[in-house]
Amino acid sequence: MITPFTEAGALDLDGAQRLAGRLVAEGCDGLVLSGTTGESPTTTDAEKAELVRAVRAAVGDRVPLVAGVGTADTRHTVDLALAAEKAGADGVLVVSPYYSRPPQDALEAHFREIADASGLPVMLYDIPGRTGTRIEPETMIRLAAHPRIVAVKDCAYDLLGTQKVLARTELAYYAGCDEQILALYAVGATGYVSTVGNIVPRQLRAILDRFDAGDTGGAALLQQRAMELIELMMASGLPGTVTAKALLNALDLPAGPVRPPLLPAGREALDGLRGAYERFVGLSAPSNPA
User: Angle, to 10 degrees, between the axis of helix 216-234 and the axis of helix 201-212?
Assistant: First the structure.
């Protein structure tokens, strides 16, 4: 979930509550707060806790809340995990420490220390393109033995490595890249953690619903129809936070500005995004079944 801000750049808790309610009503069965798309690098520790409390008040116990707590500092990450637990989160998302590029033994120790620190289940976030460090499959397999390390957000772009871990552990895998929603689900993933889902939650949910119903062709067609929007939002040179907020603002939904160093999408980019959104929604409408 994006983190809405006011036009002045302050945390918009009312907007966050309204957006969370919409996402749940449109089919999201869990919410991730303060992830990459939630601008976690530019929100304060206090804002992260406030966000969890506000969204919990809005959605109650209808869906689990996973709080992004990963930083480049193990002690800071532990502090954030404890604060998220106190604020009412149901789990934590922990990205690999970035910039320092720890070797695998240090990476494993980092995740174990965080998992030991609180009573919350941990979702590992493997996104080496941003962090510079891969959680190698063998490391993931060892970490799976920890009773509170239960899930993975997978942005490693390594289908072979993912299947290796799926075959040897009970970790719940979630596609972290929207173009891989169906592909990873088909080989045993549990679901997805989506940026594009901020905009079209019901339509992305339908991909997996079709697959579960045995309509694999229909699921594939929906995934293919989503690709134009996914590409423009996630692979056009703009961060997903920027494109998601641009579309949400255009749709009069809570979002507000991005925080520096990010800049808002320009008019040409927004026009392209709106066109792709309208085409996808039109193709996905019940009156034009897949």
Answer: 150
pLDDT at residue number 286: 62
Assigned token pair, 138: 């063998």
| Residue 24 in marked binding region | no
**Residue 162 known to bind ligand:** no
Neighbours of 257 (CB within 10 A): 16
Q: Measured between alpha carbons, how far apart are the two ends of the chain, in Å? A: 27
Contact partners, residue 47, CB within 8 Å, separation at least 6:
3, 11
Helix residue ranges per DSSP H, the chain: 13-25, 45-59, 74-87, 104-117, 128-131, 137-143, 159-168, 181-186, 201-212, 216-234, 240-250, 267-284
What tens digit of pLDDT does each residue of 208-250 get? 999 999 999 999 999 999 999 999 999 999 999 999 999 999 9
Active site residues: 125, 153
